Amino acid sequence: MPELPEVEIIKRSLFRMINKEKIIDVRISNKKLRYKLHSSFIKDLIGEKILNISRRSKYIIFYFKNKFLLIHLGMTGKFFIKRIKDNKLTKTSFYYNLNFIRKHNHVHFLLNNGLMLIYNDVRRFGFMKLYKNSELKTNSFIKKLGVEPLSNNLNINYFRQFTIKKKRNIKNTLMDQTFISGLGNIYVNEILFMTKIHPLTKCSNLKNSDISKLIFSIKKILNFSILKGGSSIKDFENISGKKGSFQQFFAVYNKENSNCSRISCTGKIKKIIISNRSSFYCGKCQK
DNA sequence: TTCTTTGTTCCGGA
DNA sequence: GTCCGGAACAAAGA
Q1: Within 7 Å: CB of A31 and strand C?
Q2: Which of residues 155-174 of A touch strand C (CB under 7 A)?
Q3: What is the dihedral angle through the alpha carbons of A174, A175, A177, A179, rounded to the nearest 10 degrees?
Q4: CATH for A156-235+248-282?
Q5: Average pLDDT of the residues in A57-64
């Protein structure tokens, strides 16, 4: 499940390997992703040069001269890059190499540096959509996103303002993409453990010191995970097929009945369901 | 067969 | 009207 750190790792690899390359050909094995690929998807991309690649929340954006490609990996979306073995960058060699491809590869991009970018998605909850550049600021997906958690826009004033009158619990609030964009279930569980805040705590009951701790933990945990190459639970791999290692550092996620990892605490990790999502917390030190 | 997973949307209750 | 949480949905594998 790619969350923000995983998407950041993928974006950095893509930038390093294919930024400034031109798309020579596109082949679609299955156009039915979360949204069906537009019938002109191939035609619209052939000949376009990738001018930049960026990340916003859990979206990856490819920029072209007059358009941009918005990508969300959903639950199981991932990218692979394969080097085309022979040096003939013809459509024939492109298709020939497709024979090596594994199940659930849906979209293939042949680039003029001899690399093939492959989008693979088992569950097909991810999507790709092309838009004109004039839509960059008005795009319906981008427009509703809250602040980037690693930016200075996430600060005490913003946090306090958004939560001060909220009766909803802090777990759901942190998962709300219109508040902070890019926090998913795994990281929110870890963030709440680090701050010793119970997931069902009402936002309006948070003290200023709690808010400071939350902001600190959000940045700390995301940055640390990026440093470790993201978390590989289920089947996350970066585009070279390498696994991240942040999952080794999970304190609570999927740790039901484990002892609390705080040396001074004798509590056990509990599991409850909040809004249909598994939540893990220490029954003793998260009040 | 049923359960699990995430992000989003829809709906009903407060 | 607004806020909030629960249910449903997408697809595939265990």
Answers
A1: no
A2: 165-169, 172
A3: -20
A4: 1.10.8.50
A5: 92
